[in-house]
Amino acid sequence: MSPVSEPPKPRPTRVRYYVLAALCVVTVINYVQRNSVGGLVQPIVADLRTDDEHIGDSGLWFFFIYAVFQIPTGIVAQRYGPRRALAAYAVGWSLATIGMALAGEIGGFIAFRGLMGAMQAGIFPCATLIMTAWLPASQRAFASAVLNSCMLVGGAAVYNLTAVLLAPNGPLDWRGLLVVYALPGFLFAAWFCWWFRDAPEQHESVNQAERDLIAAGRGPASEKARATVWAVVLSMPLWLICLQQFMRAGGNRFVDQWLSRYLQLVPLRELDEPSRLAVANQLASFPQYAGVVGGLIGGLFSDAVLRRTGSRRAARNGVAVVSLGLTVLIYLPVFALPGAYAQIVFFAAASFIAAFAAPCAYALTMDVGGKNLPVVFGAMNMFGNFGAATITWIVPRLNRWTGSWEASLIMLVSIHAVALVCWLFINPHRTVGERE
């Protein structure tokens, strides 16, 4: 008599991957709206009778308010659940985008861009809560790398869309274009609120096998005691982590906020106005697409170095230092090359290499954060946005004070060099807030 075979175990459903895909979609929508101004500076300046410095002011307020509101929006998401919070934030930042489109003067435009910053501040606190609830610990680093790439995809795609849709070559003026960019946010909010649930246990499409897989993959809780707030705040590794993020984020904002304007006014200045606007927006997308690829490869490379050497210093600090050093060197030919097409090759190459440092920074916070990880990551991200605000604001003023864009380009190179120095002194084996 043959033995009775056991029935096959049910396979886990894959709803967690659809959840990650939803986060990717909203991240692209978020960055399309966030970076839309970068390709519209010229028509906004002409229509609102303002100048580049006021556009820089709007960026300053966006990033400053974005940084300040990360903790409050995170508290709201934790209290009411990321499902309702993220849907509300998406509606809020989309309404702010429409407000920018309807603004009759620069003060109103700046106010609505600041409101957008307050609403968009909630996306990553919500994403963190969602990934913690829906993904095993072994999949969260990859999920973070994917979301980081989606940021750059959205930031790059908006330049391509603007180049095609903006009048006179396209069908829309800058106001109509902002309204079009706002619409996907409303559609996502309605769908997400209907489909998503805050926990796998609440979603009817998740079977028990997937719930068990997620729960089993969360890993054991850390036994280390939480340090005092002052021990964390006064920790030198935390300040170095924050300073390198301030610098790197500032460099990224030059590329996605001001590169199109630089191309229009310097290497493409001989073209007629409509042509140089369209060409500059298309060219400005290439460094960001390069950053998408660089970030993914950099994350895989850093993890591979860690597996091979077992050394955090080699995998995190080493990769970041080499990445930033090469970035500085790659930017130097831009000063000698007069043509936009030649320059954009080096901008794209620099963005590709610089992006290797981003996953190193995120992984480092997980390595050294301990039970203070929310504070460490929040502080790093906040200072990154302070850097974004500072660089967005200062570029047009540097141009006016010096009479050219050369000082802004020197600043772009210098801030990557400062970030490199920070990485030389960060201890990747010391938990933030603990005594030596």
Could you say what the CATH architecture of the largest domain is? Up-down Bundle
Q: How many structurally independent domains?
A: 2
Low-pLDDT residue intervals, each spanning 5 or more residues: 220-225
Could you name the CATH class of the largest domain?
Mainly Alpha
Q: SSE string, helix = H, strand = E?
A: HHHHHHHHHHHHHHHHHH
Could you name the CATH topology of the largest domain?
Answer: Growth Hormone, Chain: A
CA-CA gap between termini: 68 Å
Category from helices, strands and their pairing: mainly alpha
Main sheet properties: none
**Which homologous superfamily in CATH is the superfamily of the largest domain?**
MFS general substrate transporter like domains
**What is the alpha-carbon Rg in Å?**
22 Å
* Quantity of strands, as a count: 0
Helix content: over 70%
Mean pLDDT: 87
How much of the sequence lies in strands comes to: under 5%
Morphology: globular
Count of separate DSSP helical elements: 18
Detailed description of the structure:
- With 436 residues, the chain is mainly alpha-helical.
- It has two domains: 14-217, MFS general substrate transporter like domains (Growth Hormone, Chain: A, Up-down Bundle); 229-436, Growth Hormone, Chain: A.
- Helix content is 77%, strand content 0%.
- It contains 18 helices and no strands.
- It is globular and about 75 Å long.
- The model is unreliable at 220-225 (pLDDT under 50).
